[in-house]
Amino acid sequence: xxxxxxxxxxxxxxxxxxxxxxxxxxxxxxxxxxxxQAEELLKKIMPFTGNSIRVGITGVPGAGKSTFIENxxxxxxxxxxxxxxxxxxxxxxxxxxxxxxxxxxxxxLAKEENAFIRPSxxxxxxxxxxxxxxxxxxxxxxxxxxxxxxxxxxxxxxEVLVADITDVFLFLKIIGGGDELQGIKRGIMExxxxxFINKVEKDNLQKAKNTRLELKxxxxxxxxxxxxxxxxxxxGSALYxxxxxxxxxxxxxxxxxxxxTARFTEVRTQQAEKRFEYWVQEYILAMMKRSDSxxxxxxxxxxxxxxxxxxxxxxxxxxxxxxxxKD
Length: 327
Known about the structure:
By secondary structure, this protein is an alpha/beta fold. It has 14 helices and seven strands. It has helices spanning about 5-15, 15-30, 30-45, 65-80, 100-105, 105-110, 135-140, 160-165, 185-190, 205-220, 245-260, 265-290, 290-305, 310-325, and strands at about 55-60, 85-90, 115-120, 145-150, 170-175, 195-200, 235. Helix 10 links the parallel strand 6 (about 195-200) and strand 7. The longest helix is centred in the last third of the chain and has 26 residues, at about 265-290. The two termini are about 40 Å apart. The relative contact order is 0.10.
């Protein structure tokens, strides 16, 4: 059943989860007619967006991200908040399919009236973020959700994309064998706002404390991301609800600090500008490929690049220059 923009708008504002999901599906669609309606809908909801706290959560597979989100979400709801979870599942590189299993992994949170869980395929988009996650966030904000929790696939190569669309970037760490700092890239450490060492129990408590000390020492060598904020390294267990209250408090403290220094608005402005730049590239490429002759040139230059007839960057430059030289 097709819904009008007005029906979707009314459904979003009334908190109708079915229509919220339909609106997100519309925004995720690549069909031309859907994109037109999606742009119309996004324009209408703009005055009702921007009032949430956007939290990005990353960590290696097995760090307990889904368990953390489920129990943290329930804690926020117990504190009178509405929580939306955007769980980005890894897409198959072969057929672009996605497991989309987060709803089954967050059974208790899914039962909450004030929770909304939306699994979305990453479709190969770097950083474990769907290319419309930013727009999906706006729909959830217009629906009145106070916390938007974004769970990434934790691919470890482009977490910057997560940090670029959130207010708080949380890194989940677990205790493993060998050097506890091994594999933690400086780039991730420069982007995080909070670190939570998860799955801490009696038998690994001392090891967790040692890891916390090592992380704190490593952070001393990295310039602070926000003035006046020393990145907390907290211990706990999401499974047993240990340490989540402290994380909840620290997120509030961090947001308050950013708002007092005007960094909150400044960062969100920068994020919107980056989304603009992303969509400019998307629309230019889509416009280029509408013309048969341009499409043929695109295929030719792409073939030259893939077969290494010449440097891929050279082929891209030639294609763009040829396109821009046409009337």
